[in-house]
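User: two proteins, same treatment. go.

Assistant:
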Amino acid sequence: MDLTFTPKAERFIQRMIAFNGGNSASGFRLAVAPGGCSGMSYDFSVVDAPEAEDMAIERNGIKVFLAKNSVPLLDGLVVDCEDSLMNTGLVFINPNAAESCGCGTSFTPKA
């Protein structure tokens, strides 16, 4: 599984975990779900433990839980963070996306 977090994204996710009352077992859960402007959207949250079928990995000290059915669409993903006057949040750069929406959290998968 190839998944990359930029240093800015790592700091943002670590803050998300801390501000949401995370503990040493908490992690960042990432999934892809139907919806959004382009057909599929990224769903992410801070959770205390992975769900039963999640793939659990660790990247630079961050526990990451990937929804099993989302793994093929997340392979190769680069997670970055934008911090500007207009927008602050995670940005997803996905080689499995045929198109990405301007919102940054929605995409159309490659056929």
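Protein 2:
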Amino acid sequence: MALKLHGRLSSAALGKKLGITGEAARQQLMRLAEQNLVVATSEAKGVGRPQQYWELTAASHSRFPDTCASLTEQLLDIIRTHMGESALDTIINVRESETQRRYLKEMEGKSLLAERVAALAVLRSKEGYMADWCEEDGSFLLIENHCPISPVAAACGRFCSAELEMFGTALGSSVSIHRAEHIIQGGRRCTYVIRELDLSVEHGSG
């Protein structure tokens, strides 16, 4: 809290604010650094050893109150009420089409389904979904261990259905995909079962 209020501080200055010794403050900071909550930088000031300063990392900011999710839900409700469901659909479609263009660019040159699933997992991880993938019984599993937009997705299921459509487009028309687990419906994670369609069988039956 002291670093949040006052910015980067030396251990001595932090100790003074907390009413403890600089060494005691430094020991606390070292423990926080092991959790990736603070980071130290050195700054030279005149002669002698550089002074070490401590500041919060990006990860530590999640420990403080954040009303972004509730604000987003409020904005969605305002759009629905004053502009209509079609306006909300337009916003979601624009978001997904922009994301889809980026996904399709990453799929260029990847002819194997395994390569495309792996690329999709990397893209989703960069977006905060903590994604992974594996091959299982002739199918592929795309696994998302976290949903960074879960409050918004819970307020508007269209986000989830749009993402599923986007995955299908990115992976190709010769692929089937369905969601087996869903965080919004109480699952521990979201998982997607992905299979290569047997087009020869489909053509034969046609």
